[in-house]
Amino acid sequence: MKTIYLNKLGRGCRRLAAPAALAACAAVACLPLLADDDETPLMRAAERGWADRVSSLIASGAQVNERGEDGETPLMVAAEEGRANVVEALIKAGADVNLQDYDGKTALIEAAAEGHERIVMMLLNAGANVNLADRDGDTALMEAADEGYASIAEALLARGAAINAQNRLGETALMKAADKQRIEVIQLLLSKGADRNRNAARPMRKN
């Protein structure tokens, strides 16, 4: 079921049709709460980068770890979108940095995949588990390697990322980097001791 979080003022604004009435709502900062039915005001604010609104909504009772339709949290949304100011506000408000969505992705995995190095560091400093994997077995390091983000990969390794971890297909970060010809990442991983002889899983033959 989709979650709809609207305060009384927000509900009133949704029912108003006259331009003058809508202008009155805008004057009291009501319009930012007019979320679509499939997103809450907190999710909307996190996605848009409205850190002050995020803090205000949480202070008014919004749940910092609320879930979206796919199990994502406001922190995951902000991390994916690169909203560092919102990530900071959510962490200060007690957001759980290790929650996973229904695909197993964490805020750290999202940030690493999108190349948001500052957010990666914020999450690591807040206690993010560097080795959590999504349902395909991919970790933040694998995502960074796949996309060619060498500085992020180095930061993850410095925090204990398992360099030779394999996903469900048997792929390692090195294999992903090699497949995409991410030369800088390949060099980094090899210099840190990545196993170049590990093999990926082979598809099972059908009889």
From TrEMBL:
State a single Gene Ontology molecular function.
ubiquitin-protein transferase activity
Gene Ontology process terms (BP): protein K6-linked ubiquitination
Keyword Calcium on entry:
no
Sorted alphabetically, which keywords does the UniProt record give? Answer: ANK repeat, Repeat, Signal
**InterPro entries recorded:** Ankyrin_rpt (IPR002110), Ankyrin_rpt-contain_sf (IPR036770)
Gene3D superfamilies xrefs: Ankyrin repeat-containing domain (1.25.40.20)
**SUPFAM superfamilies reported in the protein's UniProt record:** Ankyrin repeat
> Where are the annotated ANK repeats, by residue?
37-69, 70-102, 103-135, 136-168, 169-201
Record-linked PROSITE patterns: ANK_REP_REGION, ANK_REPEAT, PROKAR_LIPOPROTEIN
| Pfam family, any one | Ank_2
Q: Does the keyword Repeat apply?
A: yes
The signal peptide here is 1-35
Q: Which PANTHER family match?
A: ANKYRIN REPEAT DOMAIN-CONTAINING PROTEIN 29-LIKE, ANKYRIN REPEAT DOMAIN-CONTAINING PROTEIN 39-RELATED
This chain belongs to which protein, by name?
Ankyrin repeat domain-containing protein
